[in-house]
Amino acid sequence: MSFYESASFIVSQVLGNWLIGGTEGSAVNLLPTAAAILSLVALIYASQRLKEFPRTTKFEDYKIKFHSYILMDRRIWLLSWVQACVHFSSVVFWILWAPTIVGDGREMVLGLVYPCLLGAKMLGSSAFPWFNGPLSLRTEEYLVYTFVLMGSLMSIIAYDYQEIEMLLILFCLYHACLGLVLPSLARLRTMFVPNELRAGMMSLSLAPSNAALFFFLVQRGYYHNIENSTVIALGALGLFTAAGCMHMLKRAGKQPHQSWIKL
């Protein structure tokens, strides 16, 4: 899914570059309206499809299962924190990569950089079957080193001035790692989280990261209390803590479900 997601984004970026460069301004102004209409049609279609599936789980049963399988399992808390850190760092990167690369008056065609980043993400996601197939590595093992590498890359981007060529290399390496991380985390969720509770676990992990993003966006964009480099460094710190959580998850091993107090 990560591979096809990146491929669709690349196609949309190529189409956008072509429309902006080869059409009149009036045609370009119609693009947001057309995108909104297509999104609305897709949302209506998805809602109609969801109505066809009967609700098999009551809210009380779901609450009991969520409490026993999610809130009382230490492994789920570790995995949720890892998911939150990855979400925070990736969103911070996508918000600040353009100001970083054009800092100090440097000129760059951002529309050409975007497909390169997505191509690197596709390359990383295509490597996922190799890590779980011929290499026969545990997901937790290689994710520890991947998070350390991603945190190091973000630290260099935050505090070490680089030329455009070096920044592009760092950006592409980060996205290659991200393309490997996303399907790996999805595999861990299938291992540890029951299918009917997976959406609740994702919401639980995204809540703190979204709250932190909102706080730092207000502090940076409205009050100007922090710098872009500080926000990127916080994303790097989150990735380092994700590596520690993944190491603890590796030590826990593939044990049956038990209370987090006993782990």
Automatic annotation (TrEMBL):
<dbReference type="InterPro" id="IPR036259">
    <property type="entry name" value="MFS_trans_sf"/>
</dbReference>
<comment type="similarity">
    <text>Belongs to the major facilitator superfamily. Phosphate:H(+) symporter (TC 2.A.1.9) family.</text>
</comment>
<keyword id="KW-0472">Membrane</keyword>
<feature type="transmembrane region" description="Helical">
    <location>
        <begin position="167"/>
        <end position="185"/>
    </location>
</feature>
<dbReference type="InterPro" id="IPR008509">
    <property type="entry name" value="MOT2/MFSD5"/>
</dbReference>
<protein>
    <recommendedName>
        <fullName>Major facilitator superfamily (MFS) profile domain-containing protein</fullName>
    </recommendedName>
</protein>
<feature type="transmembrane region" description="Helical">
    <location>
        <begin position="197"/>
        <end position="218"/>
    </location>
</feature>
<feature type="transmembrane region" description="Helical">
    <location>
        <begin position="109"/>
        <end position="130"/>
    </location>
</feature>
<dbReference type="GO" id="GO:0015098">
    <property type="term" value="F:molybdate ion transmembrane transporter activity"/>
</dbReference>
<keyword id="KW-1133">Transmembrane helix</keyword>
<dbReference type="GO" id="GO:0016020">
    <property type="term" value="C:membrane"/>
</dbReference>
<feature type="transmembrane region" description="Helical">
    <location>
        <begin position="76"/>
        <end position="97"/>
    </location>
</feature>
<feature type="transmembrane region" description="Helical">
    <location>
        <begin position="27"/>
        <end position="46"/>
    </location>
</feature>
<keyword id="KW-0812">Transmembrane</keyword>
<feature type="transmembrane region" description="Helical">
    <location>
        <begin position="142"/>
        <end position="161"/>
    </location>
</feature>
<feature type="transmembrane region" description="Helical">
    <location>
        <begin position="230"/>
        <end position="249"/>
    </location>
</feature>
